[in-house]
Amino acid sequence: MNNKLYRRLAVTNLKKNASMMLPYLITCVTVISLYYIASNLSADAGLKTVPGGNAIVDFMKFGIRLFAALSVLFLLYANSYIMKRRKKELGLYHILGLEKKHIRKVLSIESAICSFASIACGLIIGIGCHPFVTAGLTKIIGTELPFSGARSGPAAANTIITFCVIFLLIFFFNMRQIRTASAVELLKGGRLGEKEPKANWLLAGLGAGLLLCGYTLSFFVHDPEKDTDIMIGAVVCVMIATYLLFMAVSIVVLKLLRRNENFYYKSKNFTLISGMLYRMKQNAVGLSNICIFSTATLLVMTTTVSLYFGINNMVANQYHHDVSITAEAVEEDKLSELLAFIEKNKKQYSLQTANILQYTGGSFTEDLDEDGESDYFFLMPLESYNKLTSQNIGLAKDEVLVYSGSTNVHSDTLSFAQKKVRVKEYLKQFPVDNDFSGIYGMKWLYMVSQKDGLLADQFGPYGASGLHVEFDLTGEERDKSDFSYAISKKAERSSVEVNSRFEFRDSLMVLYGGLLFLGMLISMILLAKTALSIFYKQISEGFDDKERFNILEKVGMSSKEIRSTIRRQILIVFFSPLLLALIHLCVALPMVSKLLKTTFMDNWVIILNSSAVSAAIFVMIYGAVFLLTERVYRKIVTPSKQ
Amino acid sequence: MPILEVKNLKKIYQTRFGGNQVEALSNISFTVRQGEYVAIMGESGSGKTTLLNMMASLDRPTEGTVLLNGKSYADIREDELSSFRRGHLGFVFQDFNLLDNFNIKDNILLPLVLSDCSRKEMKEKLLPLVRKLGIEKLLEKYPYEVSGGQKQRTAVARALLTSPSLILADEPTGALDSRSSEELLKLFDEINREGQTIMMVTHSVQAAGCANRVLFIKDGKILCEVSKRFPDEDIKPQLFNVLSVISAGGKNNE
Ligand SMILES: Nc1ncnc2c1ncn2[C@@H]1O[C@H](COP(=O)(O)OP(=O)(O)OP(=O)(O)O)[C@@H](O)[C@H]1O
Ligand SMILES: [Mg+2]
Questions:
Q1: Does B13 contact ligand 1 (Cβ within 6 A)?
Q2: Which of A323, A471, B85, B235 could form a disulfide with A356 if both were Cys (CB 3.0 to 4.6 A apart)?
Q3: pTM of the prediction?
Q4: CB contact, 8 Å: A556 with chain B?
Q5: What positions does the domain ABC3 transporter permease C-terminal occupy (chain A) (predicted)?
Q6: Which residue range(s) make up the domain with A581?
């Protein structure tokens, strides 16, 4: 045979299998274009100049690795379905006298064509979409991005190389399948009489137990940073339980239903239950995979959306005033200079200052209770406290006032660097409220002491005598932001530290905007691949089910009944993994919210809304895939009428 | 009154691409009386399966009518057709058409379940039937665990379960070895003696010899028919005769 003949054979094969190949190729193209976009962003020099842009670059670098790994996994999976269907056709060639090495040659031409076409299309779409993507990213981040250029050679090269390797991997996988298969096997295409699955009560019980265990564990996560073991344990339990649920519990349930004769011997349950039972054995792993990936997609969507829309919440939780300025005692001149600048220029921005809070003090870490655990506290001189509260309280040399924001109880004498001080009073409230620690829920202790008292040596020039000024701005948001930046700029060269809500919010926007963007890319890829695998699973079943429904029609099942059986069967197959994924998501929400709290995001409403919106979008797209699949499946299965 | 009347039946297949038309049946008429056992013989491609499909209401004729118990198939609405088929017809196919995912018992019960019969009725009908067919020990087995002959007996049980007016069989012995074929033919003979009307398409003279009446089809037309004059008459020599004439005629026509 000459090469031309091979090529012709390959092309006709592709045409004949077009409906089977197309979803696969579309997914390949989608993945390749997303991969190109992500790798282009990660290589973008302009992005690095934006404050926080490095984080986006890191996200994208992580993203492209993830995409590559997921691509290998899913494309192999989808490809194995295609190969299973095609085994029969290839077996026929074999019988007709084509040797395996000829078949290999035809297949290699086919996959060369497919790979080239999908990489080319993917790159073209990726390059075409790039301007829109950067525009979208700019909008999400809220900062103008100085992108260096739309096209990038290294990113394209990276994409081409990566996917060539992936396609080569898939090709070798196919070759191995052909080499190991005998002619008869090829002809039968893996359709040998299958035994009915056995109900394994032990595994089913284990599955239910593990699920319960995983769910319970997730509620025991209090501090995600300390309880990582519990968290990982919960995730692993739930993952194993998912597999067991689909593999063992489903079969046990179906068998129980079948044993209930009054239920089973009804026309609407009869074919459905036996069909599901028969299917479950081959499908359990596929359905579990789909469930786990759906859960992952939902979690990625929920967290990234919550983080992005929770930015205001995080800012409010960490900044009690619009602007806070800190300076060492020795920098008093610089501070006054800055305050004068603020006073002078606020009119220019048509702003007013409000809630001005000026105090001195410094933060310390000491084991106050002598219980081996450090306590974080802020020490403030008495005169500053008196001034803040407009009181005139007096304290003995060894006396302190203490305010504890948390519920932790402390004793009446506290030890402080080998000195013992008496607590004169535990204050009910304190004028200053700050979370300097950067750990959510970690409240500071506030301690007030006389400057020349027992703790006098703590009030040195770099101790508890730091100067703090906090205030809010009233006026237009835009002006407030501009003014904050102006203040920061003014203080840039001195050691006076200026923090403002606006700068903080902008840095968070870049960080979580980038994360949201990555989350969207990941969700898209996961969704595309979940849809792809469920589509192929169902379609390949369609070819097997065709005969069954043919027989059923002859025996007297109306086309209406056949349609409804098909619909319910696909509904169950489609939506059982989704349902379980949604349950996983609901149960995981408390854990997710605790994770989010490490970033000071503690708004339940936002988390709930984010997960609801994510779930809604997911269900919608999933539903669309369902409708498409059902149509194609029905076309395959229902006997065509003249 | 005849149980089945076929009047001027015509079927034209439109081939999928282009206007090529195949006339599979042209102007076929005959009647079947209650309790008859009719065989249809003919060469491959002569239209036997097409005719059976018309009588089974699985396919609609281009022209002509089929009446079962005086009721025309054309008057039955599409959505009632399957329940009509379930209630009045029983099928036995060459390749058994059993469902892999049902055990033998459920395969047999299928038509009754589709009609939503009560469990009591199912049990009452099932047991005597499977005993008669000698498959009562196989009820819990699956089709891939039993022999071809047992599969065909399962299919017969499924066809008989609804006490249909007519049993339609398309080459029921086609996939069976000679002993299983003989057993099946004996079974058909037996149920026919009990009054069951049977219509069977077959290539085998052995099988057709069991019927009371044999119709010969060629090119979509009924060529001739052979009937037994008394119940146990051996009509096989006659059948051989007709067949040789048909094949010789086919050559002469060329
Ligand atoms: N669906 C169809 N579309 C087009 N032509 C058809 C179709 N079904 C059958 N035919 C044609 O109608 C004619 C009769 O076919 P039929 O299947 O009835 O033959 P048969 O007598 O059952 O043959 P065999 O003994 O081989 O089963 C044949 O020429 C066949 O090609
Ligand atoms: Mg036929």
A1: yes
A2: A471
A3: 0.80
A4: yes
A5: 66-179
A6: 194-317+501-642
